[in-house]
Amino acid sequence: GYRASRVIGSSVINDSKQTIGTIDDLLVSTDGKNPYAVLSIGGFLGMGSHLVVVPYASLKVVDNKVMLPGGTKATLRMLPEFKYATQ
Description:
Oligomer: single chain
Radius of gyration: 12 Å
Distance between the termini: 30 Å
C-alpha cells in the first residue's frame, strides 16, 4: 500500500507519459470500500484548476509514477467538476 501523504501531490501521467494532472486529495466512500482520487487538472500554482474525481482503482503505479491508462486532459475536463462540501 501507499501512504496518503505520499500519494497526494503526485503527478498523474497517461500512457504517453504526458502529465495530465495531480492528485489533490483522496476520498473514502461512506462504506469504506471505494476510495476515489480527486485530480487537479490544468491551472498554475492552484489557480484556475479544475477538480475531478476518478475511482482510485483506475490509477496504476508504474515505475513509482501514478498513471491513468487511457487518460487525457481533454477527457478529464469532460468529467463533472468536483467541489468540496461546505459543511
